[in-house]
Amino acid sequence: MSVPPRQSNALAVVSLIAGICSWTVLPGVAALVAIITGHLARAEIRRRAGEQEGDGMALAGLIMGWLNILAAVGLVAILIFAMVAAGADAKPGLRW
C-alpha cells in the first residue's frame, strides 16, 4: 500500500513568495504578509502533523520578513541619528 503524497501548505508558499517580494518589489507590505502567513502556516502544519509539508518555506518567509522590518527600523534610526547630529551644530541662538 502506497502512502499518499504530502501536500505543500498554501500559506507557506505565500509566505515564501511574500518574503522574496519584501526584498525586491514591496518592502513594507510584503514583509508583513510574509510574517503573518508564515506564522499561520507553521501553526497549521503543526496541527496537521504528517499531512502537510512546507515548514521550511514558512520559516524562510518569516525570516526574510522580519529581517526586512529590522532593516527598515535600522535605516530610520540611522537617519534620525544623522539628522540630530547635523542639527546640533546649527543652533542659531548659541552664536557669539
Can you offer a commentary on this structure?
Keywords: Membrane, Transmembrane, Transmembrane helix. The chain crosses the membrane at residues 12-36, 57-86. It comes from Stenotrophomonas lactitubi. The chain is rod-shaped and about 85 Å long. The mean pLDDT is 90. It has three helices and two strands. Helix 1 packs antiparallel against helix 2 (27-47) and helix 1 (10-24) runs parallel beside helix 3 (55-87). The chain has a two-stranded parallel ribbon. 72% of the residues lie in helices and 4% in strands. The protein has 96 residues and is mainly α.
What shape does the CA trace take? rod-shaped
How many structural units, i.e. domains? 1
What's the tally of helices?
Answer: 3
Strand content: under 5%
C-alpha Rg (nearest Å): 21 Å
Provide the structure class.
Answer: mainly alpha
Average residue-wise pLDDT: 90
Task: Count every beta strand, where a strand is a DSSP E run of 2 or more residues.
Answer: 2
* Poorly predicted tracts of residues: none
How far apart lie the N and C ends?
A: 92 Å
Helix content: over 70%
Order of helices and strands: EHHEH
Biggest sheet, in brief?
A: 2 strands, parallel
Order of strands side by side in the largest beta sheet? 1-2
In short:
The chain is mainly alpha-helical. The chain has three helices and two strands; from the N terminus they run E-H-H-E-H.
